[in-house]
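REQUEST ID: PR-0412
SUBMITTED BY: lab tech R.K.
PRIORITY: routine
TASK: structure prediction, single protein chain
INPUT:
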Amino acid sequence: MSSHGVPRTSGPKPTGQGREKELQRIQEYRTLVDTVNTKIYQRQYTNEVLGMTTRLLETNPEYYTIWNYRRLLLRSFFEEAIPSTSGAEDDSPKYGIVQQYITDDLRFLLPLLRKFPKCYWIWNYRFWLLAEATRLLPPSVVYQLWQKELGLVGKMLTLDSRNFHGWGYRRQVVSALEELSVATGSASPSMTENEFAYTTKMIESNLSNFSAWHRRSKLIPRLLSERNTSHAERRDFLDKELELVQRALWADPDSKDQSLWFYHQYLISNFKPSAPHDDSIILDLSDEDKLAYLQAQIDDLLEMLDGAETCKWIYQRLLELSLMSKSLNDRWPVESSDLEMWINKLLELDPLRKGRWQDLRKQILP
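STATUS: complete
OUTPUT:
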């Protein structure tokens, strides 16, 4: 099994003394698990038990029950430090105790994230820690913690730009920062412009970054709304986005990478007769304008096809564009022989979806 083209290996199996040491480690691990289970059942919420969970999670971060035990322990420590009846000021030492526990745990997670960057439980637990900080600590302190977190996730995505866990976590961090900005009365709480610029930076460093393209598509409606863009500005924006993705497709038209084609599909969805209003880049395109855009896309793909005859995505997109065009004026934008040839190529290049292309043939060809 591989991840982003990097094969995973389990390493050589231990033999002899190595095997004995491995069995001993397994037994020690099981004993520690039993001990932690017993102490949690007995409600022994102590730093000693917290240290035991640390050892277990360093060995096996996929053991989600231990993460939940750790939550129980910290919640107990927090309640002891800041009782529900507390009327202390923000600079009370009690808040310092809670902040120390949270920052220590955030620090504990860093080497785990480096070693296991795609472990759901680590990311979930890290977000929980910051949510607890938001619940318990003064806004000024919390904002700094979330700001540092944005910097951290940026570094993580620099190391692995396509880690979808990191991208999902970044969305959560940005949302939390925007909410805190509103709560603290910031003049401009929205981070949409900065995040859009960030997707541009990440795409320029790696055109195959599906997460960056997807994030970009989700930011665009909000970006245009916040800019209060005119019709002309929206059209110019769409033209530039089409140019960006077409330039990327032209760089390697025969690529099997799907991320560019999915983003291209998002852009051309603006030309559908029933395009969702909330997701549209241009809100009031006439049918004539849509037909002109569709024909321009067809012409560009036909030119791209020269030298990329084995790229199934081009044939698929040509058929999609042709169907959209016909739905607007009840005429095919190309000859029926072209449509038949494209379907035949898909049957040849994509036999796993043979039934789909055969159904499409029945729909298109008389």
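NOTES: The chain has a mean pLDDT of 90.
REVIEWED BY: pending
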